[in-house]
Amino acid sequence: MRDSSFFNTMMLFTGMPATSEQAIALADELTVRLKAFAGYGIQPIVVVEPDAPDYGLIDFHEYAQGFYDPWIEVYFDHLKKNGIRDEQMGIWMPFPEPQQDYWNNNQDPDDFAYSINRHLGLLRKYFPAAKTAI
Q1: Closest CA to 62 of 123, 112, 22, 99
Q2: Is the pLDDT at 125 greater than 70, yes or no?
Q3: Order of strands, edge to edge, in the sheet holding 131-132?
Q4: 70-99 confidence digits (pLDDT tens)
């Protein structure tokens, strides 16, 4: 493992899946990136934006109610099956800047809180030692 001369953390942006196919594709893409970061000794700060490829914005209320859980489960399960270890996960930050009008956030702080807890709970089911942030 090599350490960077300039930094040991770096932001890495990803979206959320809204289908099983997206979950697998996103996990495969992120696997490559997480392994590359680990190879350089860089801890990623994984910013998980509430936006799904070919689907659009994730609805915070639907997320809070568990609508997206099956696909999030496939996503984390696939990362685990791809050989990603807890220490390679870095720091996960879902739903960044939730107050921004361009997200489908309905301005309900409860939905934000439930969505964060739901996402991080599913993350920890597969990666119990993963670090998280808000």
Answers
A1: 112
A2: yes
A3: 9-14, 43-48, 91-94, 131-132
A4: 999 999 999 999 999 999 999 999 988 766
Three-state SS for 62?
A: helix
**What's the Cα-to-Cα distance from 59 to each of 26, 107, 126, 133, rounded to whole Å?**
19, 11, 24, 21
Return the structure tokens found at 85. Answer: 């270890």
- Adjacent-strand bridge partners of 92: 46, 132
Per-residue exposure over 46-63, b if at least 16 CB sit within 10 Å of its own CB, e if not: bbbbbbbeeeeebbbbeb
Closest of 26, 37, 18 to residue 91, by C-alpha:
37
Q: Distance of alpha carbon 122 from its chain centroid, rounded?
A: 10
User: Residue 134's CB: how many other CB atoms inside 10 A?
Assistant: 11
* 8 Å CB contact between 120 and 94: yes
